[in-house]
Amino acid sequence: GSLAVQASTIISIPMISGLTSGAHTINTWVTDLNGVAGIGLMGLNSKSFSISAGVGTVAPLTENFVSSSFPYTEWYLDNPDASFTWARDNAHTGSMMFDNYSYAAGKLSNFIVEPVDLTTLTNPVMTFDVAYQQYDAENDRLQIYVSTNCGSTWSTPVFNEAGSTLATGNAASHTELTNPGAAMWHPKSVDLSAYGTNSVVYIKFKATSAYGNNLFVDNINIAS
Q1: How far is Cα 126 from Cα 111, in angstroms, rounded to an integer?
Q2: What are phi and psi of 3, to 5 degrees?
Q3: Phi and psi at residue 83, to the nearest 5°
């Protein structure tokens, strides 16, 4: 078809089958301009995405990020703006870190825990440790969501803390937090009992920067 100047349309991409689990990239572009083959190659876009096998690991599940090869099998990073993202802190703590200190306010990124089967648990709960200290008064935020349909939709936040509520350190130090001491790590918990009948549950940790201070997460445990 044809479009008027500055007009737009939505093009549906046919379903692609037979792809393997793991990371993939899809490239899209426009060719054959005005129906003339071979004229131009424009609008090249690349989009990364991941495919999960969708088979839940039978809980209890424990992850302390000892292995440096993150992301682990069936764990995924979702980084909408292809800039800073969650990463394993190889230099210091061996935990997951989100760089609010360098990230512009409003930017966000997610890491998604491998699918877990909760049906063997009684009143499932997820515990994890957080280390965070406000740079000044910025409200860097951590939220956690649950999906029972492979990430097509997500719950309302089952955990939602920011700024001074999220903070585990003392008064603002006005310095970049790079290696939190033992006293700065505090335990947090999330009730997952509403999802206890599901054999495939995805859990997403979403960090949203307020251009404040670095956030650390460690020792994720999902158990009764």
Answers
A1: 15
A2: -130, 145
A3: -115, -135
Q: Judge whether 173 and 219 are in contact, CB under 8 Å.
A: no
Angle at 83 between CA 61 and CA 219, to 5 degrees: 20
Tens of pLDDT, residue by residue over 63-106, are 999 999 988 989 999 888 777 899 999 988 899 999 999 999 99
- CA neighbor of 56 nearest in space, from 131, 123, 148: 148
Enter the tokens of residue 182: 């033992």
181 residue type, one letter:
G
Model-level pTM?
0.84
For residue 101, the 8-state DSSP code is T
Report how far Cα 5 is from the mean position of its chain's Cα atoms: 38
Q: Give CA–CA dist 213/163, Å, rounded.
A: 10
SS3 label, residue 50: strand
